[in-house]
Amino acid sequence: CAAMLIGSSVVEITETGWAALVYPLYISSIGALVCLVLHFLATDIMPVKKEADIETVLKVQLIGTSVLMTGVMYPVTVGFLPEVMTIQGVPRPVTADNVYGCVLFGLWAGCAIGFITEYFTSHTYRPV
């Protein structure tokens, strides 16, 4: 993973230990667990009964996953990463909050991409 390779060049991360170095894997692993938890939303709480329900359940899962990941990733980020890091080539120190901001940006950008893709590929909306 490229993020782990870059992280291994940051002294503060290597000094913090293995937990900080594998932080990118935590993002993916926790995301998989959150999706597994929200899977029950689609299968037990809001099961798809007809074709028209598919889009609604998909949207609820997309928003639910993003909201849950937003809340879960903050304690993970501040718990496993050093408070301040110095990255070679970056003019200012990077904080755990900066990293959390990057995670949120990627998370919510992915959510927006999901909604945009759904809009342009769904039979519910024009232009399809």
From TrEMBL:
Magnesium is among the record's keywords: yes
Molecular function terms, GO-annotated: diphosphate hydrolysis-driven proton transmembrane transporter activity; inorganic diphosphate phosphatase activity
Enzyme class: translocase
Location(s), subcellular: Endomembrane system
Main location: membrane
Keywords: Ion transport, Magnesium, Membrane, Translocase, Transmembrane, Transmembrane helix, Transport
One Pfam family hit: H_PPase
Coiled coil: none
TM region(s), chain numbering: 25-45, 57-78, 98-120
Membrane topology: Multi-pass membrane protein
One of the record's GO cellular component terms: endomembrane system
Keyword Transport: yes
Listed EC numbers: 7.1.3.1
Signal peptide as annotated in the record: none
Protein name according to UniProt: H(+)-exporting diphosphatase
Highest classification ranks of the organism: Eukaryota, Cryptophyceae, Cryptomonadales, Hemiselmidaceae, Hemiselmis
